[in-house]
Amino acid sequence: MDKKQKKPVTLADIAAIAAVTPMTVSRVINNSGYVHADTRARVLGVAREMNYRRNGLARGLKRQCTETVGLVIGDIANPFAAELSGGVREVLEERGYTVFICISEHTAKEDVQAFDSLADHRADGIIVATRASKSANERLAELIESGIPISLIGRDFRHPHADLVMADNLKGGYEATCHLIDNGHKRIGFIGVSLTDGVRLRRFQGYLEALKDNGLPVEDRLIVGGREVGEQMPGYSTEEMGYDGMMKLLELKSRPTAVFARNDFTAMGALNAIKRAGLRIPEDIALVGYDDIPLALHTSPTLTTVRQPTREQGRCAAEFLLRRIEGDHEQPRAEKTFDCELIVRESTLPGAEVVSGSNRKRKIKTA
Amino acid sequence: MDKKQKKPVTLADIAAIAAVTPMTVSRVINNSGYVHADTRARVLGVAREMNYRRNGLARGLKRQCTETVGLVIGDIANPFAAELSGGVREVLEERGYTVFICISEHTAKEDVQAFDSLADHRADGIIVATRASKSANERLAELIESGIPISLIGRDFRHPHADLVMADNLKGGYEATCHLIDNGHKRIGFIGVSLTDGVRLRRFQGYLEALKDNGLPVEDRLIVGGREVGEQMPGYSTEEMGYDGMMKLLELKSRPTAVFARNDFTAMGALNAIKRAGLRIPEDIALVGYDDIPLALHTSPTLTTVRQPTREQGRCAAEFLLRRIEGDHEQPRAEKTFDCELIVRESTLPGAEVVSGSNRKRKIKTA
DNA sequence: CTGTTAGCGCCTTCAT
DNA sequence: ATGAAGGCGCTAACAG
Q1: Residue B340 near residue B306 (C-beta atoms within 8 A)
Q2: How far is CA B16 from CA A80, A197, B11, in A?
Q3: How does pLDDT run across A166-222, given as a tens digit for each residue?
Q4: Residue A116 DSSP label
Q5: What was the pLDDT predicted at B227?
Q6: Torsion-angle region of residue A197: left (phi > 0), alpha (psi -120 to 50) or beta?
Q7: Residues 6+ away with beta carbon under 8 Å from A182
Q8: How far is CA B136 from the centre of its chain?
Q9: d(Cα B344, Cα B351) in Å, to the nearest integer?
Q10: Which residues touch A287 (CB under 8 Å, ≥6 apart)?
């Protein structure tokens, strides 16, 4: 039946065989306009027979839209990315858009490349969830100004014609730290940032503010694991940072009684360093992570952490983008901030109920 | 300077202002053919001024290639996917191709959608790393026969004109199981599969073969955590399967002395179940995972596991694809199988050296 | 219900 | 070193 064709089948090819014009074939393929049932059936038959695939390039060129949206993510190996893209896809695919994901492993250069590819291929819009950088921000501004709908997630960059979605990580960090303070801790370490590069990490700012508001000193030696400014790392390598950072804290003469880790992977690294040192969690050292990755429920002890509504952020960014694509590109920008939720588990509260299996409800006992 | 334009800038727009023909502008933009230095500079200036972006649709339509490759992945939230896409991108981006990733959350329907999107948008080739299914395989065959270069990774589907790359997970599973047997274990459980759905999971087949070759019985009650046939799950939810599965095994009257988990996430769930039960690893129960995710090094005890060269598989698939794109689409198929490597750590060998920090070398002590 | 015309933006080919 | 012609495959807009 099938003969291998070097050249892809076109509407004209089908039209020739079905004895109609390309226009009629187009109407059949797109289910638009009036076509006689017999004609439709015949054309459809031929199209199927010839294994026709429409040419999205020609179609997009003519229609000035591709029904395609780009999603730019920094680190793919991250539950965060998975949730986010899930939310984005839920909304967009239902509306008939295809989502193409571009990875930029946390470098500004790849960020820019991703934007350019997407723009060149005439994606109808772009959702950006990578960390901000000067060069990438500049390119972003150019693209926005040239009219491409753009929606930002958790990116520290504002533009009058791009929407922004984020989580209140400042508050999240603040609450996590307050939780430790409320439990009597006075020496609280932070793993995963340095004082200099931390200015952009909201959860770290929350940590600092919580200390200040409670009259506790900020001690440099309790803040470990920072990288050079601009240097980024994939989520999965941060456990090493957690492990190494915790080792440093354990060597201090007066070590912290509690530690706030920049994310759950970091916290898991720290957790294992603590256990290797023969110390108990939370009795000797209490531990808080960030993100509530699924694994946080399966460590022992289970990990206290802060959850941000990641999927919702993805959905929201997608909805903002749709509004821009299907409405006015230059409409005023929308911005939405989602609240985070502190999830108290055993790593800070000895009495916290053991949560097992798939039960992921919030469990806070006032001990 | 910038004026917001509703309509994107075209070569003709630039040509008009630079007082040349579109053809000359094209030559400048593409750095092809002879253009006077002055003309080039002037055109480039105007292009930059107007914030020109080339139209990939028109370009692709004319040139019959888009310099774009699609990568279809099932589960994004997985270190495996990250490594794979890293390898693919390394090879392809160096050669000037853009990689667009499509996610199909392990469903055949989304698989087919991803193939179609990519084919419609005229990707120059597609790399498929999702699990096989009947409907997706059929569509794949159609696409291959219509001439789109396709390269498969770890997918149980063969076609004379599609290349295939995989890891020898049968052998990996076999060796992992033999390792346990060598250490004196006779009752070895498997978590993450059922006898019926396991026929397609090579590492499980390796487990079965190892038992058989060593004269050990296959006991149904030691095999837990299976799903319905066809039902898939994201990598991250498999820890729950590991936890729940281990709980089941612990309830057995004569519980296994060793457990082989389908992947490292499953193993981590099992690990925590064992520890909660107050048992020691490996003294009471030895544990082996699969994949060597970064976290496997940061559990306590560290996790014995099987590593497959994921990045290399990605690179290889990309190279196969390039050969097909830039050579003859109908060349005979290439196939390559990579060996796996057993990584022995503390969860099976009490004497195994503690590996810390970023040192990820293989550490086997013959205890 | 079906056909004609024209052009989306670019680049291959040939001419100058 | 530059230009002109034509068409890649598709579909709006307008006939008929």
Answers
A1: yes
A2: 48, 48, 9
A3: 999 999 999 999 999 999 999 999 999 877 777 788 999 999 999 999 999 999 999
A4: H
A5: 59
A6: alpha
A7: none
A8: 17
A9: 10
A10: A258, A259, A261, A267, A270, A271, A274, A281, A303, A304, A347, A348
Q: Residue B226 — left, alpha, or beta (φ > 0 → left; ψ -120 to 50 → alpha)?
A: beta
Query: For residue A276, which residues of chain B lie inside 8 Å, CB to CB?
Result: 300, 354
Domains of chain B from N-terminus onward: 11-54 (1.10.260.40), 65-167+310-339 (3.40.50.2300), 169-309+342-366 (3.40.50.2300)
The percent helix, strand, coil of chain A (3-state, each to 5) is 45, 15, 40
- Asked if B229 contacts B196 with a C-beta cutoff of 8 angstroms, the reply is yes
CB-based contact B76 A83, cutoff 8 Å: no
Interface test with B, best of A298, A328, A329, A347 (most B CBs within 10 A): A298
Interaxial angle between packed helices A22-30 and A11-18, expressed in degrees from 0 to 180 and rounded to the nearest 10: 110
What's the rounded Cα separation, in Å, for the pair A257 and A4? 70
B274-325 confidence digits (pLDDT tens): 988 999 999 999 999 999 988 888 788 899 999 999 999 999 999 999 999 9
Interatomic separation, CA of residue B116 and C1' of nucleotide C5, rounded (Å): 31
Q: What mean pLDDT comes out for the span A299-312?
A: 93
Has this prediction a pTM greater than 0.85? yes
pLDDT at A136: 95
Is the Cβ atom of A26 within 7 Å of strand D at any atom? yes
Residue A260's DSSP bridge partners are A190, A288
Buried b / exposed e over A299-321, threshold 16 CB at 10 Å, is: bbbbbbbbbbbbbbbbbbbbbbb
Q: What is the rounded distance in angstroms from the CA atom of residue B95 to the CA atom of residue B42?
A: 30
pLDDT of residue A358: 31
CA B143 – CA B154 distance, rounded (Å): 19
